[in-house]
Amino acid sequence: MCAITIIHNGYSFMNNGEMFANCTCTLIKGTHNIIIDTMTAWDSEVILRGLRKENIHPDQIDYVVSTHGHSDHIGNNNLFLKATHIVGFSISHKDKFYIHPFENGEEYIINDYVKVIPTPGHTLSDVTVLVTSEDRKVHAIAGICCCLIVHQDGSENPVLQRKNRLMIANMANWIIPGHGPMFKVTPEIRESLNRQASIDINK
């Protein structure tokens, strides 16, 4: 059984021609304690305060997952020195790196409730964390893959990003995006993404 706590809701906006962004930081407590996306390097106290509220010490975190390697998603990974780190397609502990074929579409199983799947698009090594509850509801903690889910945003491969957005929307009941509050996946969202996928196929 897993409990999901959002430590910080992410955001992304333009103001006077300048971009401001920070990611959502999420804690999963259960068989393994997992923190997903550790914000910017200036946000350590935000994370530590959130962990204290959950009676979790950084040394009790088993996995750190950074959904991709941008600076607002990896800024406090060094708080968790006993954890295994997954940064995009890279898995490591200290100086030991583990080979896992994310690039072949293979998921990484953490436990019976949590797995990490490849969802490239925004970067070519993006991942998404899927958490399944006992009632079989699925939460997708999706980094950038499903940020602004029906709109275009910065992406190394927009077509692939839209494809993976649709895949996640078809798998999940709820999405925790990288830059915004959690939302329920509605039939309207799935229909919109299916329409966009059809446009991509017919181009």
From TrEMBL:
GO BP: RNA 3'-end processing
Main localization of the protein described in the UniProt heading: cytoplasm
A Pfam family per the record: Lactamase_B
Residues annotated as domain Metallo-beta-lactamase: 22-179
UniProt GO cellular component terms: cytosol
Domain of life per record: Eukaryota
Gene3D superfamilies found in the cross-reference section: Ribonuclease Z/Hydroxyacylglutathione hydrolase-like
Substrates-to-products reaction catalysed: a ribonucleotidyl-ribonucleotide-RNA + H2O = a 3'-end ribonucleotide-RNA + a 5'-end 5'-phospho-ribonucleoside-RNA + H(+)
Its biological purpose: Endoribonuclease that catalyzes the hydrolysis of histone-coding pre-mRNA 3'-end. Involved in histone pre-mRNA processing during the S-phase of the cell cycle, which is required for entering/progressing through S-phase. Cleaves histone pre-mRNA at a major and a minor cleavage site after the 5'-ACCCA-3' and the 5'-ACCCACA-3' sequence, respectively, and located downstream of the stem-loop. May require the presence of the HDE element located at the histone pre-RNA 3'-end to avoid non-specific cleavage.
UniProt subunit comment: Homodimer.
The name this protein goes by in its record: Metallo-beta-lactamase domain-containing protein 1
Lineage: Eukaryota, Metazoa, Ecdysozoa, Arthropoda, Hexapoda
